[in-house]
Amino acid sequence: MSVTDELLANAERYAATFDKGGLPLPPAKGVAVVACMDARLNPYGLLGLAEGDAHVIRNAGGVITADERRSLAISQRLLGTREIILIHHTDCGMLTFTDDDFKAEIQAETGVKPDWSAEAFADLDEDVRQSIGRIKGDPFIPHTDQVRGFVYEVEAGRLREVKD
Amino acid sequence: MSVTDELLANAERYAATFDKGGLPLPPAKGVAVVACMDARLNPYGLLGLAEGDAHVIRNAGGVITADERRSLAISQRLLGTREIILIHHTDCGMLTFTDDDFKAEIQAETGVKPDWSAEAFADLDEDVRQSIGRIKGDPFIPHTDQVRGFVYEVEAGRLREVKD
């Protein structure tokens, strides 16, 4: 049995006890969270989010690229969110390599160099500030006065705010 | 008090009861989930995921763009995941508009047309198949033999697999 099959069995249990109350499409709390994909970072447990509360956008690093700007534009323009919470975290995989080395390894193996930036970073707090800057500098995200950035400390389960 | 402040109070409670056992960086279950950012879709509750289990990648629609290919390449190459679970869902915001209309509205308001595709779609199952195709066609994601796609039915809390 694959891990996917194991998780599908969990999904059947979820459906069996699902409250069919019917939640609306727009997030109840009007907030979008952008966080790293890291397995130890569970935005639901950490922020006390329930089904229906918030958009959750995630990728390697929790960085802001064109796709996060797209998702945030849709979140705010079509679904009414107004606040943005950015979460990076300690012991992040993105701190363990450089773009150049990672892409050179892929080129050595496949013969082709990826056409994307790997978005690795060396300084957590500075990368959170970069992400805030990319959001505030985007012309298509209308509401950028409530954007706050945090580092999740995986060792302690604690959020620490990154100040400008 | 902003919603962000309210969620930060939840985060303090999470830290207070956090098990400082220390989880490893690589996901325990070796799986990456790619899902829509929709507020009603909680991958932790649905799939029975706990902290440490899986990478979770999310955006508007749960579509595969360059940033998801980047995240999946990092997930598999650096952190050892081997299975991919894709989740779209019913009543998705991406079914309610077209790229052309959305971008024309932004252009009318800001004077500039976004340089991204909004990735709207009209057929859920077909877009899941498109996402699987984009992953299988990517030269930098090494393990694509265990990629399965699903539609989460928000009305019933149920996952339905999309077959080829």
Task: Give a description of the structure.
- Chains A, B: It is an enzyme of class 4 (lyase).
- Chains A, B: Keywords: Metal-binding, Zinc.
- Chains A, B: Pfam families: Pro_CA.
- Two copies of one chain form a homodimer.
- In chain A, strands 2-1-3-4-5 form a five-stranded mixed sheet, with helices on one face.
- Chain A has helices spanning 3-16, 43-47, 66-79, 99-110, 124-136; strands at residues 31-36, 54-59, 83-89, 147-153, 158-162.
- The mean pLDDT of chain A is 97.
- The first copy, chain A, has five helices and five strands.
- Chain A is of the alpha/beta class.
- The interface between A and B is large, with 88 and 88 residues.
Summarize the structure.
Chains A, B: It is an enzyme of class 4 (lyase). Two copies of one chain form a homodimer. Helix content of chain A is 35%, strand content 19%.
How many β-strand stretches of chain A?
A: 5
Range of helix content of chain A: 25-40%
**Average predicted confidence as pLDDT of chain A:** 97
Q: Which pair has the most extensive contact?
A: A-B, 88 and 88 residues
Order of strands in the sheet with most strands of chain A? 2-1-3-4-5
Give the ordered list of helices and strands of chain A: HEHEHEHHEE
The fraction of residues in strands of chain A falls at: 15-25%
